[in-house]
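hey
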């Protein structure tokens, strides 16, 4: 398994309360929407870990446009946080596993990510529907479905 594949599995598994491998530490937001339990982080994800913003007093309230209820509060990145995230992403891209892989292995990882999205499309559509106010069927068929159907 490559670093990116392990990362993808780790994020999906840990964000859903799975076991094995290093533990991603965060306090999950847990909601029951459309008779479905969903769990997600509200922190910044920088350099393979969930972290609070440098200024923890800066938060953004995510509003459900359907009923104007607060879904949750999320960390608001400062300029310094963005700089750290860009540097970590650049370091990973320039000197991590990705540039050392051949195109076939990169393609396998991208297809694996698409497979994971397919496996969790109902949960993704539920999150998208409360975040954007879209009807669930529109979110699953269009917002998520068209993304999965995209061929590059």
């Amino acid at each position: 398994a490559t670093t990116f594949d392990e990362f993808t599995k780790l994020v999906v598994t840990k964000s859903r309360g799975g076991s094995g491998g290093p533990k991603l530490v965060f306090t999950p937001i847990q909601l029951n929407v459309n008779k479905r339990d969903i769990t997600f982080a509200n922190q910044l994800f920088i350099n393979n870990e969930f972290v609070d913003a440098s200024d923890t007093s800066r938060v953004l309230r995510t509003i459900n446009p359907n009923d104007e209820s607060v879904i949750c509060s999320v960390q608001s990145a400062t300029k310094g946080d963005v700089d750290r995230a860009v540097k970590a992403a650049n370091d990973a891209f320039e000197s991590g596993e990705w540039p050392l892989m051949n195109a076939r292995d990169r393609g396998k990882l991208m297809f694996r990510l698409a497979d994971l999205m397919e496996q969790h499309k109902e949960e993704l559509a539920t999150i998208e529907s409360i975040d954007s106010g879209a009807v669930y069927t529109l979110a699953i068929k269009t917002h998520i479905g068209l993304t999965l159907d995209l061929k590059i």
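The chain is about 50% helix and 20% strand. The first strand starts at residue 29 and ends at 33.
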